[in-house]
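Quick entry between incubations.
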Amino acid sequence: MNQKLLNVSSGKAFADTAVVNGQIVNVFTGEIYPGGVAICGDTIAAVGDISYCIGPDTAIIDAQNHYLTPGFIDGHIHPESSNLSIRNFAAAIQTHGTSTIMTDLHEIGVVAGIDGIRAILEEAKETSLNIYWIVPSHIPCAPNLETSAYRFHPEIISRGLEYPDAVGISEISGFSVISGNDELLESIDLCANKNLSLQGHLAGISGKNLTTCIAAGVVSDHEAITEEEALERLRTGCHLMMREGSVAHNLKVCLQAIKDHKLDTSNTSIVTDDLHVCDAVKKGHLDESIRVALKEGIDFTTAIQMVTINAAKMFHVEHQVGILAPGRRADINITSGPEDFKVLSVISAGKLWMKDQEILKHYSPAIHAPILLNTMHLKREISPKDFEIHVTDGRKQVQVIAMKTESCALVTSPVTGWLNVRNGIVECDVNQDILYIAQIERHGKNGQIGKAFMSGFQLKSGAIACTIGHDNHNIIVLGTNFDDMALAANRLNELQGGQIVVNGGEILSEIAYPICGLLSDLPAEELAAEKEKANRIIQNLSGETSISIPFMVLSFICLAVIPEFAVTDFGFIDVLNEKVIDPIIG
Amino acid sequence: MNQKLLNVSSGKAFADTAVVNGQIVNVFTGEIYPGGVAICGDTIAAVGDISYCIGPDTAIIDAQNHYLTPGFIDGHIHPESSNLSIRNFAAAIQTHGTSTIMTDLHEIGVVAGIDGIRAILEEAKETSLNIYWIVPSHIPCAPNLETSAYRFHPEIISRGLEYPDAVGISEISGFSVISGNDELLESIDLCANKNLSLQGHLAGISGKNLTTCIAAGVVSDHEAITEEEALERLRTGCHLMMREGSVAHNLKVCLQAIKDHKLDTSNTSIVTDDLHVCDAVKKGHLDESIRVALKEGIDFTTAIQMVTINAAKMFHVEHQVGILAPGRRADINITSGPEDFKVLSVISAGKLWMKDQEILKHYSPAIHAPILLNTMHLKREISPKDFEIHVTDGRKQVQVIAMKTESCALVTSPVTGWLNVRNGIVECDVNQDILYIAQIERHGKNGQIGKAFMSGFQLKSGAIACTIGHDNHNIIVLGTNFDDMALAANRLNELQGGQIVVNGGEILSEIAYPICGLLSDLPAEELAAEKEKANRIIQNLSGETSISIPFMVLSFICLAVIPEFAVTDFGFIDVLNEKVIDPIIG
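Done. Structure below.
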């Protein structure tokens, strides 16, 4: 028992810090009224009339009649999508009022296993970002069609659920529930027996399938992309995580369902899923989502509930976070009102972290654990010849099937084209926008290289590559010629991971991701600037592509569970039939 | 994983039972719309359009366009207050649509310890009432002022929290938190470390004291008796259990606070705390509370939420009960609408339990575990002389202080009077309404008899006694003469507990409580009839008392934590000063 806290609450001792002159947004009652917050250490001691808690040594923070809200909670976010180290990521979102995240750190798990994830969570302890861990339910997504460094089976998940910060398992694939995946069902049972939370990934799931997933114990989903899906999830007793991230913008349609049907909002929350570093720097995080919600006509207190208590309740941690009340973590945002919503100052775990939008506390760079570093293990140097697709029967032309991607949709569709064959090697054709794409196993397991054809990026010359490729994080390389592709891959190996743009033997842009080949050590602003520069270079090489975040789109081309096609180190994947196929069809 | 359930949910197999033609009260969205519920075993497989679940062998329950609600949940009730065996208690409340209770079985714990509580929970398994156990936080209330058979210290509570049905600890005394009771704070830590629920008993607690209790981790309270208290609890982040029981009727004032301040209702629920068997038979249980709420202008769906999902969420079990959704226990009420609210039929754990108000499933009587029986252990036969209060200095009159009780308030206040002394023995005086009261230790520990004077019951002759006396459940006997008091006590010993009325050496009424001296084996209707008969007899002996439930009031006179006075086997207790005092003051 924290006796010091009880002494402050009861008036036997004074608070360390007192926030005064605020308008309390009480997410428990739905009211707004004047008051303050008294803090003891990292915990709220009293809320409301706190004058009795103020002593001669109490630090006073004057809220100047601004609103006091609980720190915001993102119930579903993958920090790795920002490519920021966890400390820089923490700083980037804390600036926008986020105090708590629920995350699985799935991508780190793919490369560095459970020990890698724990090492990142250890690094995060230097920050005051509050992290609950949702244990990844599957690593990788398609173990029979891709090579990852680590694989999570029920024993690993069981070990994960023992950690005190574990609050459930994440990304329970609806289709795997439907198909009766034994390992997944075993993991679900493990989690349910510990009375922890079963977080769904129910993309495209509806009707009987949705009913089946909820019957299996799934309690939330963040993949509703239409009003119908949003309504159906809530009616089926599934907490609706309304996603407003860098890739998917689903908040508006979800809110429309709520408005149209006058739905109870207490089982809804706002999440980002994936937050690109450029968005984090330029737009914000959940503060930006609140602005979207307010614009859609959602009441101020209701909007604040959607990023605080509703998520806390969903994860059964509302006694710890998500409300300005005694005994909760002292995460408090001082904000402007609904007309012009902005986070002005941030109190994080009891300390003034940002004052009038100026950050007071800067995190020192981490010394990364060995398991997070030197994760590039190519079996040998890559040669341009490694990318060749051969035809042995003397044909001069072959018909191929290429994956086509669109701007922001992650699905791929087939396009076919006739390509020339020179010296028994199939040649790509920039005029048809049918390019080479390959994935190179980089975990030191088997050195496999999978090859296919890609359409949609419209590169006219050069190659781009990166070491982020869901769900295995091998090297994914897209190119117009073998030499540039090999240069890109070998340079990424030297960098210990990253993203790269090359053209005619020249490196035009490179960003190193030394942490697992996934994360940079640059601060958010610098990384955002580097990424914007790389994107401009790619735009120049392609001329007319509409893909504004090319590396993020590229990383999803390897995902062997998003229809219709993918490329992994196993080869060209027919996702729906779950098998490797030949891209040459005639 | 329940594969059979998933088969029904997904349409691969047919439901065992289907409720059709209903109006679904969706407590998750707040909507009401037409639909049905498909059931597999004891679990809901699908809700809404369930036609695909109906096969040739599916039993059909036609709801005839009535409402379908989740089974009701009482988050704070002591079944022992009904004096019914747990199976008869279950039947009594299931008749009124209650499917789940959270209970500590504190009274059983006083007499038979944790093993006794577990034996009762074992008996309950024959029923389909769903019981979550809240481990008692203190047994007895005042260990230095009373003798109970068992005492709960942190090690016992720690053992209790290991049971899979344990969801928290109960009745955390606000004043014990404030005074810093070491054992209680240790138990709180044990419970918090397991992330279980800390249920408060915050009678009379407000301001800094309330803040301190919430800071200590208390998440709910059922003791708000004014609008101010209700509002203050919610504003402080404390779930408001609005009590509407046989002793306390607090629902109306709590609802008034909600209406006056337009408060979010999701953190409120309705509980009964104590339900007298006569009320259970004549009025109902939570169905009666819903009628009260509706009369107060609460919206129908909101009222249903207050007895279903809100309580489930408070205890973090909303994935198991409290909503009509896949994977939840198939506890479904078919009810009439808000105009004339009534539970018509009950589906309990998937089976039709009551149809058109006719009970289909009757529970067999339990063979009680030995630990629950033969709990009367008087050290020796009680003699009339045991009740004598002596004056040795030859005075003929003494001034005494007597406890006065009022109709339904549990507090006692002092009255003084002059009593005659004959042969050195103080004589009671029915004309002044100052009677003898005594408590006799009956657990075989020390044979202590505590004696005092009582006012308020207005008995003109005879004696009444029972073996229910909070918080120790020794024999409490009130009388006008020693002979009748001794007869009553000795007969209760023969009965192995119960309640009794005697007059002039004759037993006018007796009801045996063979289970721990607390519970009868009679069904609810019979027990209610016996109790009404006893109450009429007491009315006849007293003439003008306004105490309508005399034995329940008597049982609280022993409670050494309700001001201002009590009698225990230790003697006459000054509650506020926590000590035994002499009733003779002059």
